[in-house]
DNA sequence: TTTAGTAAGTAAAACGTTTTACCACAATCG
DNA sequence: CGATTGTGGTAAAACGTTTTACTTACTAAA
């Protein structure tokens, strides 16, 4: 803006403005008529003039002006209202668009919107959240962002939220169960409209209980079942059944199991696998079960398997990572896949499958899970908003067997 | 709490309470003397009694009580103050511990703290942030959380912040430059006390400029240099120099370069590499430069390199991922490493180096970088708080050559 | 005996929104 | 012509803290 425009807008002569400037020590330059003045400086001036018009004792006025200066002309809703000549509440309603119960004339609406953009008004979401009790932000807590499948899930959730213009912020647990939640516990309740917990945390029950007390909408995605929290899980039983049927049909009768049973889902898969073997009349050979807790241990397990006197004809790994690793170890030890040994994965997020070994695996449809999780969280938030109670639901998603070239009939 | 305790605390007979309950339709059960009553119900009761004592017109009282009921006895600082018999401001000062300019007697302090825990008071961080203009939360934006090195950096930043009890929330860009920031732009300014941008975003300059206008403290970590933003970078020139010297000393004279030049740091590394070759008097062979944009392309590049009429004696990859991949491709093609070809990586976050091929690489000390970034951001926040302007700084971190068994002298 | 200083607080404004309750005016209806 | 119903707003309270400017009671010094 230029000085002469401002003089017009204020309806005061330049001399008066200069006097005020000096009296209250404003840092606005009013030297040249054609000088450009920033919106913020203009706002400061307007605020000062308004403060002067209030007929307060001199002392109070000085205080007010000092605060205005300190605030550096930050533009608030009331500046927009003042500039557009309307009330604050009206500006709020127009810029929010959510309260459409009250009619507003098209003309005023345009004027306010124009003023807001002209002044560069940016709403303060903190104030908004305080008053409305809604932040518009969803939190995501991820057990381990290093896990490709969990990462895929978060990404899908993020994409889903992008569609509805919500923001999602995440915190991750860095292998320490519950740490992320412990860390954000203090804020979780007020900052987030809802929370998605991705992956199963070992100590999550305690945390779930705390969250329930806080009455925050929560959905657990790919975590464990809990009677008080809505969950979206993948049907491990079905996945392993499909996989086992595939292996059995190929003729495998001696199958090793490799999985990190720190994860609830892996525990489920193992139990199903044991049952299936029993049902199929296969021996319950404990020496073929391996439960490594990390990749280093997993490598050792695979080496042990390959060195067994009677090695199995197939290795069922409960993650694509482990499977890829097992395949690598086997290849480097001179085995051929799938001729010498069949190796299968789980998860189906092995982005590199075309590069390394194309794995037979179980794909868990992460997009579908993300969609369901978001839908359920939205439902909870809506119900919560109406001050009502919601009942948790459990959604179980069907996985799909993907057959690639890491599995074949065993050698005779 | 029990009913008789409450009667004592209120100093009113049960009958009077029951009357109030019926009159204002409170959902608190006051039937049995020995009945347990939740803290929240007790708070509701106290608030109602207080509202009644205010001598307002009946209508206003009803309004107030309705609001109290709607609020479900959410415990605020003023409840604690009321219960402890002190003013609200005092409670704030005691529970915050930050304003120690004012003396407080030990006795009152204990009483207030005891009351707060007894009522289960949890501060509302939104209200706090609104008034104090500090959220205590640092934002982190990551270009690609799938990149192991960036993930390591974020993790180190997170650990550093954990030490100082701050919370860090992140958003990630999902391969789309600037998307994360676009998404969180609206909130960034008010929700976060500062922002760490991890990795180089292609369109980050625009975003930097916007952030500067918002006067939000920002540090760019492992990103590109920018005159208006503080940066913490790794010295690519030094890293490549060390690596080149190693290869040259081993006797390599024909070195292929494989790197994703979408990243600024890779561009820097390439330029340094070109200069070093020139200085060493090696031919400037364009056919040995490969710039794949993803892993699939990278695999193809490596295949092409191996199929060259006169293949190079070494492949310099600008990431451990590419190098690992190149090694795999080479091994599967029947080459031996390092006997047949030398392959080097960059970054030094290859967590699996003991499993696959132990790579010669350049380690960039991520912890050190994280510490510096956090320190610098804290500095900016402090200066910002005092209403002063800060000058951006550039911190360059020295990488370190790690020699493992993927590099050796070329075959004669 | 006044004065100054200090310990231990209090009262109220402020942060920037949203939301509630109300109002003026015009048009319509019986 | 008076009552009713929309239309297009306004004024002010409320959200739950933090912070500023006062206050009171007591002690020590002059």
In short:
Chain A has helices spanning 3-10, 14-24, 39-53, 58-70, 77-84, 88-96, 106-119, 125-132, 148-163, 179-191, 204-213, 236-250, 264-279, 295-307, 320-332, 366-385, and strands at residues 137-142, 167-172, 194-198, 218-221, 230-234, 255-258, 289-290, 314-317, 342-344, 361-363, 394-397, 400-402. With 412 residues, chain A is of the alpha/beta class. In chain A, helix 5 (77-84) crosses helix 7 and helix 14 (295-307) crosses helix 15.
What does this structure look like?
- Two copies of one chain form a homodimer.
- Chain A is an alpha/beta fold and 412 residues long.
- Chain A is built from 16 helices and twelve strands.
- Chain A has helices spanning 3-10, 14-24, 39-53, 58-70, 77-84, 88-96, 106-119, 125-132, 148-163, 179-191, 204-213, 236-250, 264-279, 295-307, 320-332, 366-385, and strands spanning 137-142, 167-172, 194-198, 218-221, 230-234, 255-258, 289-290, 314-317, 342-344, 361-363, 394-397, 400-402.
- Chain A has a six-stranded parallel sheet with strand order 2-1-3-4-5-11, sandwiched between helices.
- In chain A, α3 (39-53) runs antiparallel to α4 (58-70), α5 crosses α7 and α9 (148-163) packs across α16.
- The structure holds a DNA duplex (30 and 30 nucleotides).
């Amino acid at each position: 803006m230029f000085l002469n425009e401002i003089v017009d807008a204020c309806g005061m002569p330049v001399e008066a403005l200069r006097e005020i400037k000096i009296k209250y020590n404003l840092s606005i330059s009013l030297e040249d008529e054609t000088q450009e003045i920033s919106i913020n400086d203009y706002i400061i001036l307007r605020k000062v003039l308004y403060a002067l018009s209030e007929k307060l004792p001199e002392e109070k006025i000085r205080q007010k002006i000092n605060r205005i200066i300190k605030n550096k002309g930050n533009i608030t809703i009331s500046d927009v209202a003042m500039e557009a000549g309307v009330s604050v509440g009206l500006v709020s309603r127009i810029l929010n668009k959510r309260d459409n119960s009250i009619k507003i004339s098209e003309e005023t609406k345009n004027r306010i919107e124009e003023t807001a953009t002209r002044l560069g008004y940016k709403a303060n979401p903190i104030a908004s959240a305080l008053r409305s009790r809604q932040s518009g932000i969803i939190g995501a807590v991820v057990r381990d962002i290093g896990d490709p499948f969990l990462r895929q899930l978060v990404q899908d959730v993020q994409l889903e939220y992008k569609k509805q213009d919500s923001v999602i912020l995440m915190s991750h647990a860095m292998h320490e169960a519950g740490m992320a939640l412990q860390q954000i516990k203090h804020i979780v309740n007020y900052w987030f409209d809802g929370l998605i917990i991705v992956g199963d945390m070992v100590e999550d029950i305690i945390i779930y209980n705390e969250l329930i007390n806080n009455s925050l909408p929560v959905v657990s995605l790919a975590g464990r079942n809990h009677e008080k929290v809505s969950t979206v899980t993948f049907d491990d039983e079905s996945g392993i059944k499909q996989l086992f049927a595939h292996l059995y049909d190929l003729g495998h009768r001696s199958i090793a199991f490799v999985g990190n049973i720190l994860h609830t889902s892996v525990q489920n898969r193992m139990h199903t696998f044991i049952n299936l073997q029993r049902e199929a009349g296969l021996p319950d050979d404990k020496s073929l079960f391996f439960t490594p807790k990390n990749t280093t241990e997993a490598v050792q397990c695979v080496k042990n398997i390959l060195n067994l006197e009677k090695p199995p004809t197939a290795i069922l790994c409960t993650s694509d990572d482990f499977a890829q690793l097992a395949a690598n170890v086997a290849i480097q030890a001179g085995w051929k896949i799938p001729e010498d040994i069949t190796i299968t994965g789980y998860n189906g997020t092995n982005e590199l499958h075309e590069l390394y070994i194309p794995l037979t695996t179980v794909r868990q449809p992460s997009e579908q899970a993300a969609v369901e999780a978001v839908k359920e969280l939205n439902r909870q938030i809506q119900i919560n908003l109406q001050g009502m109670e919601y009942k948790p639901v459990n959604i179980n998603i069907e996985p799909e067997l993907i057959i690639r070239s890491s599995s074949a009939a065993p050698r005779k």
